[in-house]
Amino acid sequence: MRYLLALPLIALVAIGSAFYYDRLRTFDALVPKDAGSALIAEGIAYGEHPLQQLDIYAPATASDGSRPVIFWLYGGSWNSGTRSGYSWVGRALAAQGFVVVIADYRLVPEVRFPGFVEDSAAAFRWVRGNIARFGGDGERIVIGGHSAGAYNGAMLAHDPRWLGDDRDAVAGFVGLAGPYDFYPFDTDSTIAAFSQWPQPLETQPVTYADETAPPALLLTGDIDTTVKPRNSEALRARLTAAGVEAEMVVYADIDHIEIITAISRPFRDKAPVLADIAEFAHRVTRDARAD
Q1: N or C: which end of the chain has fewer CB within 10 A?
Q2: How many CB atoms lie within 10 A of CB 239?
Q3: So what's the pLDDT on residue 3?
């Protein structure tokens, strides 16, 4: 039965990333969600633009205290995506004991760099200041994301210009198949999003990897040809050289899309992505509380 339920999902995933992001709402509607978690707030505005909104997920069980928070940013080449296509991610992470926030942000061509990073930063600041009302601890936040969302998150975690003092609340960073070291710009999506910036190295997360960075978990697949594993290796090497904890996991036979769909219930046996995220996020948020 589980195999039969997964068949239409396999068809969606197999079409590749160029079309996959446009079909996430269908994937989200079909994929079975994790029990023990729920959407508790929807369409909360962190700004005035229609895309400056976020959703919040939480465990269904009561808690005696505030829970650690995962602030999640989705992928889509900076030109597509919507938080409503990722409820399966929110539910899966919330079922692991986190309050989870998934935020929209403005997209290309309406904005170019740094517009989508600015929105991600504004959403994070909203979370830090308001998540206590939803059972989360605004001082113990893990930033996570996939693909373009991992890029946005990496900029928040590593470049102090975007969060300022709010960066103190970042307990860790989780990046799935993130582009961190991709200059010169040689794809349509990176040219559209970044080529106008006069100092291109200022757009690269590796530029800002120093001793002030939070612990990082960098996940990638060995057959990812969209964002090659060398991006994660470059960031890991910079962080490690600076004395920062940075773990890189390369999953065998996993591509750019499979690394995110492995969080969903039907594909969870392909790679332990969810378990690895949960273990890391629980550990670094415990360490943050101890500090």
Answers
A1: N
A2: 25
A3: 42
